[in-house]
Each structure stands twice: as structure tokens, then as C-alpha cells.
Specification:
It is built from twelve helices and 21 strands. It is α/β, with parallel strands linked by helices. Strand 7, helix 6 and strand 8 form a beta-alpha-beta unit. It binds adenosine-5'-triphosphate and magnesium ion.
Length: about 450
């Protein structure tokens, strides 16, 4: 039997140590050492036979047909359906609705005449049946309440379903590995073996993974490298809207976004989120509509800002759904180049619907909301904004402005504040601005005084 060595390897720099250490001797990071099992070199070398590589041109590959999950928003995030024999990792905070979404997906796939399997390690079969009864239409989904990795893999090989969901990968355990379920070694073993089965038996496998407090999928980051696609399910448990986004996709674009609403009958896709998130009350101070691009989809979002005087030596800049560094930069550029003194004020910014903006094209809209709150003047009625702000106060063109304008026109926007060079479209008036100062002037209603 191969001798197995336990090594502790830093997940940041790769330094290995035979003992676990709190601080990595290589890079000095704390708490990054994770245990790994290594076969000794001799054992690894024995029994390996060299093979002849095949020229790539001789490899037969057909673009397999994607399996539609029957949930358009989920299909969109996956890049048009799930690819057969691929491995997808779905992460999300507890209670966000991972099990609900995947059970609905399995239900509709099985109704389309395909074979599906749900491996549940977290809930009993009866609990899942209760949820299935609530959601409806999942009667033909096969269920396996099992946590033994060997049994799960053997079942997959024997049954060969088209799609299998493992809820969750942290509950699986391989008996030959000594550590507890959910430990780094167990999770990696489970993912590795499921990957092999997925490719060999042609089972599209969806793994549910828990998310740690700091937002990473629990277990080793190596899980994210192993799988073909990583989906993150975000959203407030106390808020009915959930956002699904791809952070990695080997078969499609990342940054695609799906919007869902949690209802008693499960998660319902929101096909037109702009309508939901992209409206402000006319005349309201401190609210602006931004047109951001999430993947291939333009989205209108209401951005709210509050500017309130403070006595703090370091005024606060708090953003929900906005990158804090980006927010600090926008506040600084507003102060330096648009004559908006915010040095003695706290600035709060919030994005509607729990959406997180990652794109710089939302800069102008964020700036407009802050300027509106600071000056006490509402943003023009029926106006939306997009564009990136440079450190010099000049606006930079945002990508795919045509699609953004199209979305604005569709939702009845009258004026668009955008960088100069953005072409007019239909009845939409484009207020092209060179600088942030111009954009603020064009975007806000005339002030009383
Ligand atoms: N009867 C119901 N009506 C409306 N919403 C419900 C109902 N039952 C459950 N929910 C919603 O479903 C959510 C739980 O969904 P689900 O179990 O799919 O989450 P999960 O992400 O799988 O959580 P976990 O990580 O704990 O497994 C709850 O937060 C709740 O909002
Ligand atoms: Mg669950």
C-alpha cells in the first residue's frame, strides 16, 4: 500500500510544512495552512507507464447539446443551459435558496423526460419530499439520502442520470480518509472523485457548497479550480430578491446575472429586473438611475445616496452593493473636480434590490446620486446615467453603450447622461458630457437657489 504523508500547504503561496502552523513561514499569512495528503514519491512513480499523446486534430469532439434546466434565468447564467458531463459548483449563504432552486431545476429537467438524481446529505428524503410537494412538479426526481462518497459514486455510475445534484459537497465523506466530513481533505476528495465520475459516466453534476463568513466557498479554493463553472447565489435572506451570478464559466461568459424572487411556490425568475429595480420617485433627492451592464445584459438600477454632516475626523463612506474603493474615488473626484465639498460629511450609497455593482460604468450614476443628495436637488425626471469616471474628472466611454441605450429606451427613460461620443438613439436625448462637472450639471434639476 502506498505510504501517505500528511503535509500542510499554504493556500496562498504553496509553502508546505509537515506540521500545522498558524502563520505561514513562506508568506507570513495567518491561518492559510491546510492539510493535504501526499503519496510518497516512490509510491507515486511505481506502476506509471508512459503514453503517446494524440494530436489535437484527431480528438473527436462534438459540441454537445446543452441541457436546459427549464429555468431561463439559471440557463442564462450557465451560458445557455448545463453542459452534459460538466461539474458546476453552486455557492451561497445558508437559507438563500440553493436547494429550492436546484430542486425546481431537477423537476423541470425530469419533466422534459431526462433522468435526474438528487443526492441529499443535509436533509432527509422526507424533508425534501415536503419541499417538492410545495414546489410541485418534482415527483419523478430520483432521490438518494446518502453521505458515503463511495456509494454516491457507484450509484452515479450505475444509474447514469443526465443531471445529478449533490446537496451539499461538505456532507460527503470518504471512509478511507480519516478526517471529518467537511474538512479540506474530504471536500477535495469528494470533488475530485465526482469530477471523474461526471466525465466518465457523462453525468452533469451540480455541487452545492457552503459559503464562509467572508464570502468564499467553504473548503479549499481548489474546488473552484476543479469545477467547470462556479455560480454564486447572493441576496439577503430577509429580502425576497436573489441574484445568481457566474464567477467562473468554462462554457460561457462570466458576470451573467440571473434575478429571482423567493415566493411560497419556490424561486421565480424575474425576466425584466430593470422594471423592478430601475425606477425612482420623481422629485426625490439623492436617487439616480444607473444603467449597468451585467454580462451581456444591461440593467437599470436605482442608486440611492445620503450625505449627512458629521463631526467625525474621518467621515464615513459606506456603500452597499458598491465597491468601497470605487466609492471613495468617486467622492474624491466629486470634491476635486466637480466642486462638491464632502470633507465634513458622511456618504452612504445603496443599490436597489441587493444587486452588487462591479462595473465602472455605474460611476456617473453613483456620482449623480451623491451630488443630488449633497445639493438637495433631485435628478431630472426620467433620466438615467452611465459612464466611467477618470481620476482627472473626465468621463470615459462605457462599453456597449448601444445596448444600454436600448434598455433605457425600452423602459421609458427620456434623458441619458453619458460620456460625449455616445450616439443619440431614437427619441432618447443623450446629454453628452466631457467631465463629471458637466454630467452633474446635466443630470440635476435646476436648483432653486
Ligand atoms: N413556505 C415557504 N414560503 C416562502 N418561502 C419559503 C418557504 N419555505 C422556505 N422558504 C424560503 O426558502 C429559504 C430556504 O431555502 P433553501 O432551503 O433552498 O435554502 P438553502 O440555500 O438550501 O439553505 P441551506 O444552506 O441551509 O441548505 C428560506 O430562507 C425561505 O426564505
Ligand atoms: Mg439546502
Amino acid at each position: 500500500m502506498a505510504k501517505v504523508l500528511v503535509q500542510h500547504v499554504c493556500s496562498d503561496c504553496g509553502t508546505s510544512s509537515p506540521r500545522w502552523l498558524g502563520k505561514c513561514p513562506g508568506c507570513g499569512a495567518f491561518g492559510t495552512l491546510v492539510e493535504e495528503l501526499h503519496a510518497t514519491d516512490d509510491a507515486a512513480r511505481r506502476g506509471s507507464v508512459a503514453r503517446v499523446p494524440t494530436p489535437l486534430g484527431d480528438v473527436s469532439a462534438s459540441e454537445g447539446e446543452r441541457i436546459s434546466t427549464g429555468i431561463p434565468e439559471l440557463d442564462r447564467v450557465l451560458g445557455g443551459g448545463i453542459v452534459p458531463a460538466s461539474l458546476v459548483l453552486v455557492g451561497g449563504e445558508p437559507g438563500v435558496g440553493k436547494s429550492t432552486l436546484l430542486l425546481s431545476a431537477l423537476g423541470s429537467v425530469s419533466r422534459a423526460g431526462r433522468k435526474t438524481l438528487l443526492v441529499t446529505g443535509e436533509e432527509s428524503a422526507a424533508q425534501v419530499a415536503l419541499r417538492a410537494a410545495r414546489l410541485g412538479g418534482a415527483e419523478t426526481v430520483g432521490i438518494l439520502a446518502e453521505t458515503d462518497l463511495g456509494v454516491v459514486c457507484a450509484t452515479l455510475e450505475a444509474e447514469r442520470p443526465d443531471i445529478c445534484v449533490v446537496d451539499s459537497v461538505q456532507t460527503l465523506h470518504a471512509s478511507e480518509i480519516g478526517s471529518a466530513p467537511g474538512s479540506v481533505a474530504q471536500v477535495r476528495e469528494a470533488a475530485g472523485r465526482l469530477l471523474r465520475v461526471a466525465k466518465e459516466a457523462g453525468v452533469a453534476t451540480i455541487l452545492v457548497g457552503h459559503v464562509t463568513k467572508d464570502g468564499a466557498v467553504a473548503g479549499p479554493r481548489v474546488l473552484e479550480h476543479l469545477v467547470d463553472c462556479v455560480l454564486q447565489f447572493e441576496g439577503d435572506r430577509y429580502h425576497e430578491h436573489r441574484i445568481l451570478r457566474a464567477t467562473k464559466n468554462r462554457f460561457g461568459s462570466t458576470n451573467e446575472l440571473g434575478v429571482f424572487e423567493m415566493t411560497g411556490a419556490g424561486l421565480v425568475g424575474v425576466p425584466d429586473p430593470s422594471e423592478l429595480f430601475g425606477s425612482t420617485h420623481p422629485g426625490e433627492v439623492g436617487a439616480a438611475v444607473g444603467c449597468v451592464l451585467e454580462g451581456t445584459r444591461p440593467l437599470l438600477l436605482e442608486i440611492q445616496a445620503l450625505v449627512s454632516p458629521t463631526d467625525l475626523a474621518m467621515p464615513r463612506r459606506v456603500g452597499t452593493g458598491v465597491d468601497p474603493k470605487r466609492l471613495a474615488m468617486i467622492v474624491a473626484v466629486l470634491g476635486r473636480h466637480a466642486g462638491l465639498a464632502l470633507g465634513t460629511a458622511d456618504v452612504f450609497v445603496n443599490v436597489a434590490g441587493g444587486v452588487r455593482i462591479e462595473e465602472p460604468g455605474a460611476d456617473v450614476a453613483i456620482a449623480l446620486a451623491i451630488a443630488s443628495a449633497s445639493k438637495g436637488a433631485p435628478v431630472r425626471e426620467g433620466a438615467a446615467a452611465f459612464g466611467e469616471i477618470g481620476l482627472t474628472g473626465r468621463l470615459r466611454a462605457a462599453s456597449q453603450s448601444d445596448r444600454r441605450l436600448e434598455e433605457c429606451a425600452k423602459l421609458g427613460i427620456v434623458t441619458v447622461v453619458a460620456p460625449t461620443g455616445t450616439t443619440q438613439r431614437g427619441r432618447l436625448r443623450v446629454a453628452g458630457s466631457d467631465t463629471l462637472r458637466d454630467a452633474v450639471r446635466a443630470g440635476l434639476e435646476r436648483q432653486a437657489a
